[in-house]
Write a structure and sequence with these properties.
The complex is a heterodimer of chains A (about 100) and B (about 425). Chain A is about 10% helix and about 40% strand. By secondary structure, chain A is mainly β. Chain A has a single domain, classed as 2-Layer Sandwich (Folate-binding fold). The longest helix of chain A has 9 residues. Chain B folds into two domains: about 180 residues, FAD/NAD(P)-binding domain, CATH 3.50.50; about 150 residues, D-Amino Acid Oxidase, Chain A, domain 2. Classes of the chains: A mainly beta (about 100), B alpha+beta (about 425). At the A-B interface, β3 and α1 of A face α8 of B.
């Protein structure tokens, strides 16, 4: 991966971007169990896969979501951050939903 | 080719025994199955056979012996960590390293060099002092040294680091050492092999059978095995094995790159680390400079190399040692680092009975090879965590009792 398409700025060199981790739905802190909460805080899906991730275009300070295959390092699609409000469908490797 | 050599090559009888016994088939069951024939897995097999009398052990390796992070690290051995748990653990490892070559009857090229962690800022000096005090408290030889001491120890260093990161002092750790990493895997492997352990290369684990919360067997590309104990020592592949038993952990995978220069005459005796410049470097017995930097900045499960890495590491190397500008980089490579949020490993028993974990070794695993073998063999044999790994258990996150080792585990954070 050398170029990433920022939803705001278009294709830019990947060195202009910072990785912000996987998009993870937060459980309701008032109703979830202690185990669910600590699992949310610490646990990660460590295996390779096609994942929704937070990325930031550093020069413009613009946060957005990228769908990336973490085994092959291929960005399949990028979305504006509003995408995080919708449920994230599971994806087959290498394909955008 | 001379006729005799050809005949020797084709013959089944060789005067010299091979390093490892070749096993044509897996047995139907083993007392213990170890996944991963790297340093950690083979060390555990070695101590299981030698110290605990458990010899019906299979070590399964999907590639070849020592082909993962054991053969990809920058071979630095030290114990100048930050937490009491870490210092005690790594100190025991340094102790075990001392007579390992004799134990194996194999030259590990273990070479005590002294280890400088350079401080370029007041806050770095403060962390160094903290580490030195914790180290001294546990009997580890570490001390704060001033800039003049650093200059005497490394006469060729540019103390201003190109004018933008002047060296104020350092944490000096006299027992810091390097060793020949491949030989460590071979030594442990041969020692285990001679004691009856079976090492199966080209054998990938495809599933772990769990019944009623207990391990009952392992599926491999060469058939199924019955066993009640599995030790997982697979570094960057840990999450994939954990998926087989349905365990979730904080481990995430980033590549860690390294590179080596062409050989030059010996000029750098100690090991130099600079957290601010993101560099660690040592010179091997054959004159190459082995260099590493910080993790790649995002999750990836490939061991590709990047030009970005060579450029930034070379530039920081030249800040410290401008005269290297004509020296060429020979090779670069990468390994998959299994990182944890507190930069301490994940070890010991797990909620799945009979499934033991030796993981979360991120960028700091090679130096711990002997002590991991010792403590994990004890844990597997007894079913209870060894006292030295109690700060590294996998349930520490649910208790919010992290073992914060970030200030001492690697560079660049």
């Amino acid at each position: 991966m050398k170029i990433m398409v920022c939803p705001l700025n278009g294709p830019r060199p990947v060195s202009e971007f910072a990785y912000g981790g996987e998009v993870r739905p937060m459980p309701d802190p008032d109703s979830c169990s202690d185990a669910e909460w600590s699992g949310y805080v610490f646990n990660r899906s460590g295996s390779p896969g096609t994942k929704y991730e937070w990325w930031c275009h550093i020069a413009s300070g613009f946060w957005f979501i990228a769908l990336r295959d973490t085994a092959q390092d291929v960005v399949i699609a990028t979305y504006a951050a509003e995408r995080a409000r919708q449920p994230m469908p599971a994806v087959a490797p290498g394909r955008a939903p | 080719m001379p006729h005799r050599l050809l005949r020797f090559g084709l013959s089944r009888k060789h005067p010299e025994p091979r390093m490892f016994t070749r096993h044509d088939a897996l047995k139907s069951g083993y007392d213990v199955v170890i996944i991963g024939a790297g340093g950690h897995g083979l060390a555990a097999a070695y101590y299981l056979a030698r110290d605990h009398g458990i010899r019906n052990v299979a070590v399964l390796e999907k590639g070849y012996i020592g082909g993962g992070n054991t053969g990809r690290n920058t071979t630095i051995i030290r114990s100048n960590y930050l937490t009491p748990e870490g210092v005690k653990f790594y100190d025991e490892s340094v102790r075990l390293w001392q007579d390992l070559a004799e134990d194996f009857d194999l030259n590990l090229f273990y070479s005590t060099r002294g280890h400088y962690t350079l401080a370029h800022t007041d806050s770095a000096m403060r962390t160094m002092r903290w580490r030195a005090e914790v180290n001294k408290h546990y009997g580890v030889r570490s001390e704060i040294v001033d800039a003049a001491f650093v200059k005497r120890g490394i006469p060729s260093i540019d103390m201003s680091c190109g004018g933008h990161a002047p060296i104020l002092g350092a944490l000096f750790h006299e027992p810091g050492a390097i060793a020949r990493h491949d030989a460590v895997a071979w030594g442990y492997g041969r020692g285990a092999d001679r004691r009856g352990v079976e090492i199966h290369q080209q054998t990938e684990v495809t599933g772990i059978r769990v019944a009623g919360g207990r391990v009952v067997g392992v599926d491999t590309t060469r058939g199924a095995i019955a066993t009640s104990k599995v030790l997982c020592a697979v570094a960057g592949f840990t999450p994939r094995v954990l998926d087989m038993v349905g365990l979730r952990t904080p481990i995430y995978i980033h590549p860690l790159q390294a590179m080596v220069s062409e050989p030059v005459k010996p000029w750098l005796d100690p090991i130099i680390v600079s957290g601010s410049l993101h560099v660690y470097v040592s010179q091997t017995a054959r004159g190459e400079l082995v260099m590493g930097a910080s993790l790649d900045p995002y999750e990836l499960h490939r061991t590709r190399s990047t030009l970005d890495f060579v450029e930034s590491l070379s530039s920081h190397m030249l800040d410290m040692f401008p005269f290297l500008s004509e020296v060429k980089v020979n090779r670069q490579w990468a390994g998959l680092a299994d990182m944890t949020p507190d930069f301490a490993p994940l070890m010991g028993v797990t909620p799945v009975e009979g499934f033991y974990l030796d993981a979360g070794w991120g960028t700091w695993g090679f130096k711990a090879t002997p002590v991991c073998g010792k403590t994990m063999s004890h844990t597997v044999a007894s079913g209870r965590n060894h006292a030295l790994i109690e700060g590294f258990t996998i349930d520490r996150f649910a208790r919010y009792q992290l073992t914060g080792e970030k200030g001492a585990a690697s560079v660049g954070h």
